[in-house]
Amino acid sequence: MSAVDAPPVSSAAILRFLRVTLHVAFAVLLAVGVLRLLITDTRGLDRYLFLALSVVLAAIYLVGTVAEKRFSTGLSQRNPRRWTALWLGLITVLWAVLMVGSAEFSWLVFPLFFLHLHLLPRWAGITMVLLMTAGVVIAQWISSGADVPPLPVVVGPVFGMAFAVATSKAYRLLYQEGENQRQAADELRRTRAELAATQHESGVLAERARLAREIHDTLAQGFSSIILVSRAARRSLSAGDLESTEESLAMVEATAAENLAEARNFVRGLASPALAQSSLAESLSRLCSQTQREARARGGALRCSFRLDGEPIDLPQPYKVTLLRAAQASLANVWLHAKAESAVVSLAFLGSEVTLDVFDDGRGFDTESLADAVAGRADGSGFGLRSLRERVVAQGGKLTIESAPGEGTVVAIRLPLGDGFISIQGDDNG
Questions:
Q1: Domain with CATH 3.30.565.10 in the chain
Q2: pTM of the model
């Protein structure tokens, strides 16, 4: 893999590397100081005292770093931050005592620079760094035995101090960037979780709306038809008209069978069985005939006819289902509410759009009451118009209803036709 293709290194990884480097440097420099102490000609009591102090310093340093690591990784709930000043003060004092005993320990100041600059406020950290730098220069000067501090004794600690300050600034910038990335990642995860929950809720609501439309346009209308035809059969039976009774019962059986087929299909998310084996025009024509028979079974005299205009084209399945359901809902309203004598279902292919018009010569109604119909009624009725409008709008179409008291009703639906629709020759005999 080339350098260009290598994945970017995160600021968190850089910070972890710098921390490990800092701890390793402290351990190595402390070990070097102890080793130099052992090989120098130091009196026995002082040697053992400084060795003991070195062990104490290493133990305190290790306890502090382990506590911070456990807290940052979530292994411990105790925040060691409140003990930071005490911990830093102890290791600084121990280092200063060791440096007085042996100048070899003065080089421990470099990792201590970073600790003070990172753990203390900016001004306090820089002040401590200046004081420690001066202490190192003095210790090295005394150790050299020169009357005047040699240049390397001054330049080395000062250069190290400047490097530590600059590196600490870069470390702080990396640390801030890492925190910003962590907060951004947390926000992204939270946003994704909220989005997933919203999408799930939206999917649930959409499925509920689909089921509500399907139940209203199929099962509810079928049950209404069964109830009305059953009532007509009871009246015919009471009047002794066995022929009408038999016709009504046959209609009840056919409607119930059709409802059962519709229920099984929309539960599986399939299209209407009326469209499974026939074209939309044939299904609409058959719907008109069925509506006329149902009206006759109830003792009515509704005449329903179907008309096809234009050259049929192959419509998408959602279009077919929308237009068929629209015709079913409109004709159901005709024989339930309109008291009409005739109804006409007209399907037209007009090049840029397909239209469905359902006209009846019934009693009509005031279109200002449509707002109440769209909102639905308290008893659960009145859902049909809202369901129909939702279906049409979902396909990018337009629904128009024209009516007036005593002048009948026209339900007009317009669905746009784009490129890619295929003409169906010979499908104009529906």
A1: 279-430
A2: 0.44
